[in-house]
Amino acid sequence: MKPEAKLIAAALIGAGALIGAGLFWGLRASAPSPTQASAPPPVDDSSVQINVPTGPVSASRSEAPAVPTQHAPTDEAVRAAMAKQHATLRDKCWAPAKPNETASVRVRFLFQRGKQTALSVEDLAAYPSLSDCLRGALTPIEAPDGGGAVATQVSVRFP
């Protein structure tokens, strides 16, 4: 091979290598990292605290959605209703699960203008069927109108 041809081949190979390296490093910098591309990790909601503002919340069409507040008469109405339902819940849901043990389950309610709109029962890993049974067995609760969205939580102790 002639010396000029070797020089041209070396120049082309060197130029190709530089262009390839530039493309590799340039595109690598603009690509999302593997942690950005994957879904965010699940949130452990046992460590999440929700601070609920006190006082009535008004919700009109022009405002943002209402944030649930705490309302003492609603809290008392829920506690009274849960006390009335406790024996039924114990016999229907707790007795089939673990009659000789004790546990406490958190139940969260959301009310809109005194009507129950949502219910959440804490899942207990030791008693997987208990939460589903409680969700099905709890009867809707009516509470005093809190002037908007009202959230409350009660702890139900079994047995």
Write a compact overview of the structure shown.
The chain is an alpha+beta fold and 159 residues long. It contains four helices and three strands. It has two domains: 29 residues; 92 residues.
Question: Could you walk me through the main structural features you see in this protein, from its secondary elements to its overall organization?
Answer:
Helix content is about 45%, strand content about 15%. The chain has about 160 residues and is of the alpha+beta class. It has 2 domains: about 5-30; about 65-159. The protein has a 3-stranded antiparallel β-sheet with strand order 2-1-3, with helices on one face. A hairpin with a 2-residue loop joins strand 1 (about 105-110) and strand 2. Helix 3 (about 70-95) crosses helix 4.
Question: What are the defining features of this structure?
Answer:
alpha+beta, 159 residues, 43% helix, 4 helices, 2 domains, single chain
What secondary-structure arrangement, pairings included, does this model have?
Elements: H1 3-30, H2 34-37, H3 72-97, E1 103-112, E2 115-121, H4 128-137, E3 149-158
Helix pairs in contact: 3-4
